[in-house]
Design brief:
By secondary structure, this protein is mainly alpha-helical. The protein has one domain. The protein has 5 helices and no strands. The longest helix has 39 residues. It is globular, with a radius of gyration of 17 Å. The protein starts with a helix and ends in a 5-residue tail after the last helix.
C-alpha cells in the first residue's frame, strides 16, 4: 500500500468516525440529563415508562441544541430542524419505552432500572444518529 493509499484510507475512516464521535459526545451529555431525570423519577415518583417519557424529553431538548451547535451542519431552518428532530426523537422515545417496558417485565431488569435504561439507550443510538443526520443535513450515508 502506498503512502497516498494509506492516507486516503485513514481520511475515509476519520470522515466516517468523527461525526459519530461528536454525536456520541453530545449524546453523552444529553444521556446524562436523561439518566439523571430517569433515576430521580423511576419507582419514586413515576413508573418506568412515564419516567422514561419525561427523562427522554429533557435529554431530547439538550441533545437538539448540542447537535445543532457541535455535530451537524444545519441545512434547513431551525424551526423545521427542531420539528423533524422532535419527530425522530418521539420515534426513539417510543422504541426506548417499548424496550424498557418489555425488559421491566423481567424481575432482574425491573429491579435494575439503570441497566434497563442502558440497554434501551444503546439499542436506539444508531436509529437516532442516522435519522438525525438526515434531519440536519439531508443525508443518511456516511
Amino acid at each position: 500500500m502506498t503512502d497516498l493509499e494509506s492516507t486516503s484510507w485513514w481520511r475515509k475512516l476519520l470522515n466516517w468516525a468523527l461525526p459519530k464521535a461528536k454525536y456520541a459526545a453530545a449524546g453523552a451529555v444529553a444521556t446524562g440529563v436523561d439518566y439523571t431525570v430517569y433515576l430521580l423519577l423511576v419507582n419514586k415518583v413515576l413508573a418506568p415508562v412515564p419516567s422514561n417519557v419525561v427523562a427522554y424529553s429533557a435529554g431530547m431538548i439538550v441533545n437538539f441544541f448540542l447537535q445543532k451547535r457541535f455535530v451537524f451542519q444545519l441545512r434547513r431552518s431551525v424551526g423545521k430542524a427542531f420539528f423533524f428532530a422532535a419527530l425522530v426523537s418521539l420515534g426513539g422515545m417510543f422504541l426506548s419505552s417499548v424496550i424498557i417496558y418489555g425488559l421491566s417485565l423481567q424481575p432482574f431488569f425491573n429491579h435494575h432500572q439503570a441497566v434497563t435504561k442502558l440497554i434501551a439507550t444503546g439499542l436506539v443510538f444508531f436509529y437516532n444518529f442516522y435519522l438525525k443526520r438526515y434531519v440536519f443535513e439531508g443525508r443518511f450515508a456516511g
